[in-house]
Structure formats: structure tokens, C-alpha cells
Specification:
By secondary structure, this protein is mainly beta. The protein folds into 2 domains: 14-280 and 435-444, no CATH class; 314-391 and 393-420, no CATH class. The chain is built from 2 helices and 28 strands.
Length: 448
């Protein structure tokens, strides 16, 4: 699945992922002596740690509480994954647990300096290509042209046997620019308690995002050009998820938004269950971007007739509106909510989806209802206030939708609320644990 439809990267050279590591070394060797470079990286590790500590009093994070620390090492984020560099990667590192991603069982990974993790080969590509792009999985909290030769560092930690944390701490962008700095993390959490070995959660944590683009990606002063991309690619050419704003200037807003709650800006959480992406079943629905007046969903449809499950906070009804992409052909509503019956309302605003009237049709929870023709929007009403659904619980009303064709979908689910005097139940802690994917791309040669 994905969030935004993007134009293709216009770099003049793209290379197959199977040759990424050899091509990366070849590219570097035209400008640098590899042996000397790696020697310098090794002796510079202690210096980078001291440099990072020295900057701590000068840089304040926008969301300091969202960044995890206390893992030891020179800056509290664990050990350095690599020395100061541009476009390079760590050695193959061990995960403290196995993960299942679309049938691929992985126990090792690479930390790539340019804001992503890969699981088959290291990746030196600096300009992000739009997902889906290659044949190995990738997790990309912020895939852009990170350059740590001027300032910042990349750390890796395993605070316990069920958690792995990678931190890009106050990193600059190419070419050794330090005027704008980013701090972000990716956290992998083992979740065998959910029923299957290999189930895991992914968290993206954004403490500060100031730059989007390196100089070699068409950027100027850290902005413009082809901005960073965040998300996951399964590496199968089909399944992927891209966070809102990716490859646009709006990617900076990831530090100000969340799919967890309005109270946790900068925190994005996703769950991989049985190797599958969120939205594949009612037990693991796709969670929305939390916005002031509703819920924003963006995803990719690969099988139009297979229900895709989304879930926002709830009230007494919802308006479902497709902003772009294929229209909806059926709806499957949940059971066990009030009397289990709902009212279908139709658009009465001439396609503007601003007003709705009753169609006289009753929908039954648990039974798929096929629309007479594909709809851009519709409304569901008739959820009893006596059901007491908590409007802050994002797992309370899981909705299945099918679409008229494959393609990228951007849609909203806007709750219809009423004021009631009775107290709704508190959300459980598990309601705020969510889900994700992985992915990867093609390699572009950097002109340096």
C-alpha cells in the first residue's frame, strides 16, 4: 500500500538492486581511496561521539519526548553503526529476533546512512525513488541524502531481546551541510504475544525535521529538488506503504503529525502480522493520520475485489469520501455495535460530497453490501449513542471497502459526532499499538 502518487525520480542512471553494493564501491572509488576512507572512519568513531555530545547543548529538538534514549554509548543512543560518511552503510548486523515480512524471514539487517534499513544488501542510493521499486525489503524512516561528515551520527542499540533501535541524531545533508539538522528513529519490536513468531511492530519517531533534500538531489539549502521519502516496501513490486508528504516539501510535517493520537506528534506506529501489511484483515486495519476534523487514509489497491480494512475514531456515523483514485464498490461494516444495523445515506450535493440524504437502505453488520454503481462518497448513520463508542479509540469501528480497480487511493473517513452526557470507556493500551511494512529501491549514481 502507499500514501501518495509520486513522479518517477529523474536521475540519469538506475541500477539493479542485486549490484547495489559493488556499484556503490565503484562510485566511491572514482573519488576516494576506499581503504583509506574506511581506516579514517574507524579512527574517527570516538571523535564523532564527542562531537555529538558537544552539540547537545546547541540543538533543541521539536519533539524531544518522542526520541528514545538511555541506551549507553557516546550519546545515549547505543553504539555507532558507522563512522562519519556519505552514502555508506554498516556491516551486516544481527537482529535480536526474527521478523516475517511477506514470507521473508530475516534475522540480520544493514543500517544505511541515507535514512533506511535493508535486509538483503546495503544501499547507497541517496535520491529516493517512489515505492515500489526493487527486489529487497526496506524500512525507511527518512530516505534522503544524509551526510554525517559535517555533524551528527547514526547509532544502533538493542536495549532488550525484543527491541532494536536505530537513531539518526542531528544529521546534516549532502554536501557536508550543517545549517539544518534532522533527528529521527526507527524502532522494531518483537510481538510473539500476537500469536505468530515473526510478528513485529515498526515505529517511526521524528524529533526534529529541518531539511528534505541534499545538494545532489536537486536541493538548495536543504530544500527543493526531490525530497525525502518515508515508508516501507515489501520488495515484491506490489506491497508498499508511503507516509504522507513523501517526496514533497510536506514530508517535514511528519514531525508534527501522527497515526497514534493528536497528543503524540512525530510518532508513527505500524504492525506486521503474519508477514502482511495493515489493512489486510479486520484484526490489523490500516490506521489513519489523525487530523483535527477526521481521519486521512492513503493506500495502494492491488486486488480491487479484496476488502481493505480501515479504522478511525468513532462517533454516531461516518462520511466516506474518496479524494483521488478508484471509487468504492462495496462496504463491510462491523458486528457487535449497538443493534448491528446501519443506515446508508447518499450524496445529495452533486458530487461535492458535502451533503447526504437517506437512501432508505439498511446495512447489516458483517454482511457485504454491493453498491449499484461505484461511489466516490457515501455516509453511514444510525450508530446508537448507547453503544458508548470511545471517539479516541482507533480500533472501535473497522470498515472493509472494495474498489472498482487497482490504483492509489486517497480517502477520508469523517466522524459524525453528538454530545452525550454518559462517559465512554477508556481506550486500552493495546489500542495504540499499530502496524507496518518494508521496502527498497533502485540505485542512482551520484555525481560528486
Amino acid at each position: 500500500m502507499t500514501v501518495v502518487l509520486h513522479e518517477l525520480d529523474q536521475k540519469n542512471v538506475t541500477l539493479a538492486i542485486s549490484t547495489i553494493w559493488s556499484i556503490t564501491k565503484m562510485t566511491v572509488s572514482t573519488q576516494k581511496n576506499n581503504a583509506f576512507t574506511h581506516f579514517c572512519q574507524n579512527i574517527a568513531i570516538g571523535f564523532v561521539g564527542l562531537m555529538s555530545l558537544g552539540l547537545s547543548a546547541e540543538v533543541s529538538l521539536a519533539n524531544p519526548s518522542v526520541i528514545l534514549n538511555g541506551f549507553g554509548g557516546p550519546a545515549g543512543f547505543g553504539e555507532l553503526s558507522q563512522g562519519p560518511n556519505d552514502d555508506q552503510s554498516s556491516s551486516r548486523l544481527n537482529l535480536p529476533f526474527n521478523i516475517d515480512f511477506f514470507g521473508g524471514d530475516f534475522s540480520t539487517f544493514f543500517v544505511n546512512n541515507n535514512g533506511n534499513l535493508t535486509f538483503v544488501n546495503p544501499l547507497g542510493q541517496f535520491t529516493p525513488s517512489p515505492f515500489p521499486i526493487t527486489n529487497q525489503p526496506m524500512i525507511a524512516p527518512y530516505w534522503g541524502d544524509v551526510d554525517t561528515r559535517g555533524t551528527g551520527a547514526v547509532y544502533v542499540a538493542s536495549p532488550n531481546q525484543s527491541t532494536a533501535v536505530v537513531t539518526w541524531d542531528r544529521v546534516g545533508y549532502y554536501n557536508s551541510r550543517t545549517n539544518l539538522l534532522n533527528t529521527f528513529q526507527v524502532v522494531l519490536r518483537d510481538r510473539p504475544d500476537t500469536g505468530l513468531d515473526g510478528n513485529f511492530d515498526i515505529e517511526f519517531r521524528y524529533g526534529q525535521l529541518q531539511w528534505t533534500t541534499g545538494d545532489a538531489s536537486g536541493g538548495s539549502g536543504g530544500l527543493g529538488g526531490t525530497p525525502a521519502q518515508a515508508g516501507f516496501d515489501a520488495g515484491d513490486g506490489i506491497n508498499f506503504f508511503t507516509l504522507p508528504g513523501s517526496r514533497t516539501s510536506e514530508v517535514l510535517n511528519l514531525a508534527n503529525t501522527s497515526n497514534v493520537s493528536l497528543d503524540t506528534p512525530g510518532l508513527w506506529s505500524f504492525a506486521i502480522r503474519n508477514g502482511e501489511t495493515p489493512g489486510s484483515n479486520p484484526e490489523n486495519p490500516l490506521l489513519p493520520v489523525i487530523i483535527e476534523d477526521g481521519f486521512q487514509f492513503d493506500f495502494n489497491i492491488t486486488e480491487p475485489d479484496r476488502p481493505f480494512f480501515i479504522d478511525p475514531d468513532v462517533a454516531v456515523g461516518y462520511n466516506y469520501i474518496v479524494d483521488s483514485g478508484p471509487n468504492m464498490t462495496s462496504v463491510l461494516l462491523p458486528t457487535g455495535i449497538g443493534d448491528g444495523f446501519y443506515e446508508l445515506w447518499s450524496d445529495s450535493s452533486g458530487g461535492n460530497c458535502t451533503d447526504f440524504v437517506s437512501s432508505g437502505t439498511t446495512l447489516t453488520g458483517g454482511t457485504t453490501f454491493n453498491f449499484a454503481s461505484p461511489l466516490r462518497c457515501f455516509s453511514v448513520r444510525g450508530i446508537e449513542t448507547s453503544a458508548g463508542l470511545d471517539p479516541t479509540n482507533p480500533l472501535a469501528f473497522v470498515t472493509g471497502l472494495t474498489f472498482e480497480s487497482a490504483g492509489l487511493v486517497s480517502m477520508r473517513q469523517i466522524p459524525i459526532t453528538v454530545f452525550v452526557t454518559t462517559q465512554v470507556p477508556e481506550p486500552t493500551t493495546s489500542a495504540f499499538i499499530y502496524a507496518g511494512l518494508m521496502g527498497l529501491g533502485l540505485l542512482a549514481r551520484k555525481a560528486k
